[in-house]
Structure formats: C-alpha cells, structure tokens
Amino acid sequence: MNKAGERLYNGIVKENPTFVLMLGMCPTLAVTTSAMNGLGMGLTTMAVLALSNLFISLLRKVIPARVRIPAFIVIIASFVTIVQLLLEAYLPQLNKSLGVYIPLIVVNCIILGRAEAYAYSNPPIPSLFDGIGMGLGFSFALTCIGAVRELLGTGKVFGCSVMPDSFVPIRIFGQAPGAFFVLAMLVALQNLIKEKRKKAGKSYEKIGSGCSEDCMNCSDKGCSRRFYDADAGDSRKEEKPAEEKTEQEKSADLEILNLEKEEK
Question: For residue 185, how many C-alpha atoms fall within 13 Å in the half-sphere facing its CB?
C-alpha cells in the first residue's frame, strides 16, 4: 500500500482521521462553527502534515530511535511556525478565527501518529502522499461538520444564505454541544454506509497503514496476520497424515511385542 493513489484513498476513506480513527477531536469540535473555519483548519493541518511526513521520512535514517519523538516535535513545530506566519500575513481574518488552535497543531495526535506509524519507516514519496491523504480526510471531515453546523445554526454555508426566510436558526448548533451532535450524526451516517457496503461485499473496514511484513517486530496487536497465517492451515493439514501414520506404527510395534511375549 505504498502507491500514491492508495495512500490518498486510505487517508480520505479507510483511515479518515475524524470519522474512522477519531483523532484530533479538540480542533474538530472547537473550530467548526463554520465551513470556512473547518476548511481553513483542515488545509493548514494538511500542509504541516505533508511537509513533516516528507522531512521525517528523509531524515529517518539519521534520527536516533531513542530521541525520535522530540525530533518529530521540532520538525513539526518548525512547519507550524512557518504556516502561522503565512496566515498572519495573507489571511489575518482566518488566523484570528482559528486562534490558539494553530500553534496546537504541534501536538496534534494525527501528525505525531502518522510520523511514528508511517513516515519514520517508509520512503519519502509515499510518506508525502500519506500526509496529503490524511490531511485531505481531515479537511473533508472538518468542512462537513462546519457546513452542517453553519447551515443549521445560521441558515448559511460559506457565508451564503441557502435557507428560506422562514427558516428559524437552531442556535445550539453554533455552540459547543452542536459540535458533538453533528459529529455523532455524521459518524452514524458513515457507519450506515459501511454496513451497506459490507453486505454488498465491498467492505473497507480493514485499516491499511502500510504493512511491513515484519510480524516479529510488529506493534499492531490488532492485526489478524500476527496470529494467523494462511499457509499455516495447509501445513497443519499436511502434517496430520504423518501424525496418524506414527500412531499406526506405534500400534503395530505394540502388537509385535505382544506376539513375542506370547511365543516366549
């Protein structure tokens, strides 16, 4: 699963950080009061995620394993600082809306998780596309949540009125509880789609972070391949006749011994 298209599909659909892995909940619930805020936060995170993945992958043979987490944080913090300065210069209104959540990207579990789980053990180009895919998935999720909250809370989407004049805004969706309600509804909708695909034989529930085939040193305890090998079943079947033959030989030897005792 190291092809560019597979990494993008994996991040947007199979391992969507928000709807599947449930990561980065703090900015997801805090900044999605509008679709524009959600999109801005998602794209900002994507830029940091893609660049940090690329540089961590390039430096993976240089960074010592014992200090890899501090090294990851230094690299991520550098890109967050660059992105924040660019937002202050060119998009000051968005920077003001996102506020403290831009510096908090440094400790976002999505970025640290991808650096540890993928970028540190894979080549640069797949790591770059893995970051872009996870960032697009995060952007898509935040934009959807922000759009639903903005639509129900104000009757607008991206600042444009789309509801009739008779529509009465549901103010709670513009507040903190509304984020939980919308997230729960969208996750339930996603689970419904997954169940329908599963019944149709098109399930995509299996998470594919890029198997290294190194089961001895694998830390993924939930991986079914750790405990079951398809070839193992065939080998057990092949060994079974050999075990039966050994038992027959033992019984034959016992009968020979009994006959010898009777002759004596």
Answer: 12
CA distances from 243 to 228, 230, 240, 247 (A): 22, 21, 5, 6
pLDDT digits (tens, 9 = 90+) for 119-166: 998 999 999 999 999 999 999 999 999 999 999 888 888 888 888 888
The count of other CB atoms within 10 Å of the CB of residue 262 is 7
Long-range contacts of 55-63 (CB under 8 A, 24+ apart): 56/115, 56/119, 56/120, 56/127, 57/119, 57/120, 57/122, 57/123, 57/124, 57/127, 57/128, 58/124, 60/119, 60/120, 60/121, 63/120
Cβ atoms of 138 and 18 within 8 Å: the answer is yes
Find out whether 83 and 102 touch, Cβ atoms under 8 Å: yes
Taken in order 187, 191, 192, 194, is the CA torsion positive or negative? positive
Phi-psi region of 100 (alpha: psi -120 to 50; beta: other; left: phi over 0): alpha
Mean pLDDT lowest among 73-82, 145-154, 156-165, 248-257? 248-257
- The answer to whether the pTM exceeds 0.85 is no
User: Which range is most confident: 116-125, 194-203, 205-214?
Assistant: 116-125
